[in-house]
Design brief:
- Strands 1-2 form a two-stranded antiparallel sheet.
- The chain is an all-alpha fold.
- It has a single domain, classed as MetI-like (MetI-like fold, Orthogonal Bundle), CATH 1.10.3720.
- The chain starts with 11 loop residues before the first helix and ends in an 8-residue tail after the last helix.
Length: 294
C-alpha cells in the first residue's frame, strides 16, 4: 500500500516552504533585479547621482579590450578547474573505492579540504608557492624552475587553478565515490570473467553508469569556477600580475568597489549571470544527451 503524507490544512505545505522561498527571493531574485536596474544607470561612486543611460554601460563594456581579455582568462580558468578538478577527484574516488583496510581514514582526509574557507585556501597555497618562503617554490627551484607568480602571469594562473581545484576536489570526490559504490559489483565481476581489463571495464561499464553524476558535477564545477572563486583570487593575486588573473567575477568587484564605477559593475554582473545561464542551458541541451540514466 502506498504511503503518502497528507496535510490537514492546505496552507501547511506553503508554510513549510515559505522560509526557503523567502531566502531565495531576498538573496537571489532581489539582487538580480537590482543588478538589472543599476546596469542601465550611470551613477557616481557615492550613489548621490544617477542617470538613465539605456545600454551605454553594455556598449562600453564590449568596447573595452580589458573586459574582453577577462572573458578569455575566465574561459581558460574555468576549463582548467572543471576538467582537472573532476579528473583528479574521479581518480581519487576510484582508488578509495578499491581500498579495503582503513578506507574511512582515507575518505576523511580527502573530505577535509571542503571544510576550509576559500580565503584560507588562497592564503595556504600562496604561502606554499611564495617565491621567497614557499616550500613548493624551493622544490621547484631545485628542479631548475624559477617560480614567481608575482611577476609571471602563467605562474599566477597556475596558482589560482591549483587552489580552486584543491578547494573543490572534496565535493567532487564525495559524489564520484557515491556513484561508484552504487554500481553493482556483479557487473564488474562479469566483465572481468569475460576477459575485460581494468581500463576497458572502467570506460565501458563504470564511466557510463556514473555519467549522470559526471554531468551534474560538470554543471556545478562550471558555476563554481565562474562565481565561487572570487575569494581565492582576492587572497592570492588580486587579479595580477597586471590583468592576467582578473576573471569576470573579480573584475566586477574591482571596477565596482575599487574603481567606483557602479553602473559598469552592475552591467558586468548581468553579463556574467547571462553567460552562466547560457552555459548551463547548453550543457543540459547537448551534453545531457550523452548521459545514460538507466
Amino acid at each position: 500500500m502506498e504511503k503518502r503524507a497528507r496535510f490537514k490544512s492546505k496552507w501547511l505545505p506553503y508554510l513549510l516552504v515559505a522560509p526557503q522561498i523567502l531566502i531565495t527571493l531576498l538573496f537571489f531574485f532581489w539582487p538580480a533585479i537590482q543588478a538589472l536596474y543599476q546596469s542601465v544607470l550611470l551613477q557616481d561612486a557615492f550613489g548621490g547621482y544617477s542617470e538613465f543611460v539605456w545600454f551605454d554601460n553594455f556598449a562600453a563594456l564590449f568596447g573595452d579590450p580589458t573586459y574582453l581579455e577577462s572573458f578569455r582568462t575566465t574561459a581558460l580558468f574555468s576549463l582548467l578547474v572543471a576538467f582537472f578538478g573532476m579528473a583528479i577527484s574521479l581518480l581519487l574516488a576510484v582508488f578509495a573505492d578499491r581500498v579495503t583496510k582503513g578506507a574511512s581514514i582515507y575518505k576523511t582526509f580527502l573530505i577535509w579540504p571542503y571544510a576550509v574557507s576559500p580565503v584560507v585556501v588562497g592564503v595556504l597555497w600562496m604561502f606554499l608557492l611564495s617565491p621567497s618562503l614557499g616550500v613548493l617554490s624551493h622544490v621547484l627551484s631545485w628542479l631548475g624552475i624559477r617560480w614567481d607568480y608575482m611577476v609571471n602571469g602563467n605562474h599566477a594562473m597556475i596558482l589560482i587553478v591549483i587552489a580552486a581545484i584543491w578547494k573543490q576536489i572534496s565535493y567532487n570526490f564525495l559524489f564520484f565515490l557515491a556513484g561508484l559504490q552504487s554500481i553493482p559489483k556483479s557487473l564488474i565481476e562479469a566483465a572481468a570473467i569475460d576477459g575485460a581489463g581494468p581500463v576497458k571495464r572502467f570506460f565501458t561499464i563504470v564511466f557510463p553508469l556514473i555519467s549522470p553524476t559526471t554531468f551534474f558535477l560538470l554543471v556545478v564545477n562550471v558555476v563554481y569556477a565562474f562565481f565561487d572563486t572570487f575569494a581565492i583570487v582576492e587572497a592570492t593575486t588580486h587579479g595580477g600580475p597586471g590583468k592576467d588573473t582578473e576573471i569576470l567575477v573579480y573584475k566586477v568587484f574591482s571596477d565596482g568597489f575599487k574603481g567606483g564605477d557602479l553602473g559598469s559593475a552592475a552591467a558586468q554582473s548581468v553579463v556574467l549571470m547571462a553567460v552562466v545561464i547560457l552555459l548551463t542551458v547548453v550543457q543540459f541541451k547537448y551534453v545531457e544527451k550523452k548521459v545514460q540514466y538507466a
